[in-house]
Amino acid sequence: MSSAIRHIHYKPEFRELSVWFGPEGRRYKYADVPLEVFNAFAEAPSRGKFFNSQIRGHYPAALVDPSEKRMRRWQAIRSA
Known about the structure:
Blueprint: E1 5-11, E2 16-21, E3 26-30, H1 35-43, H2 47-55, E4 61-64, H3 68-79
Antiparallel strand pairs: 1-2, 2-3, 3-4
Helix pairs in contact: 1-2
């Protein structure tokens, strides 16, 4: 598992991929990602390499501004 990529999640009804990065849990959303790409990403032996070659720069991305509540939840999970 990648040390930079902490978690991934996919919403097939919106073709939206969420990727959480680093120890601080920054989340980016990627639009119009096909289900096949998400499945390959989830199963990739190196998520970091897959992300850099198949996702970064290929799909529109936006940083999600975490609410204070989400940030506390993330930090609680991280410290558990």
